[in-house]
Design goal:
It is built from two helices and seven strands. The chain starts with a strand and ends with a strand. The chain is mainly beta and 85 residues long. 13% of the residues are buried. It has one domain.
């Protein structure tokens, strides 16, 4: 898939290929329709946000924190999470 990927702390997101996610037990796959890349995303990637330690465990990551999408059956959903590669 294509995504706004951050490869190291403080880096600018780059539009590039990223591995397709594979849902784990208790998770569902969401087909992303739109995301917002906001100031909070930059603060987390830079390690400046109070919650950054909970997200910055490994790179590369997709820095967009929240968005909208659809489940496999078409059900619309909203989400808020950082994805790690």
């Amino acid at each position: 898939m294509k995504a706004a990927v951050v490869n190291e702390r403080g880096a600018v997101p780059r539009y590039e290929d990223f591995p397709d996610p594979v849902p784990r037990a208790g998770e569902v796959l969401v087909r992303v329709r739109a995301v917002a890349v906001e100031n909070v995303d930059k603060a987390i990637v830079n390690g400046e946000h109070y919650a950054a330690a909970g997200y910055l465990t490994e790179f590369p990551m997709i820095s967009a924190f929240d968005g909208i999408g659809a489940l496999a059956d078409g059900t619309p959903v909203a989400f808020g999470i950082l994805l790690r590669g």
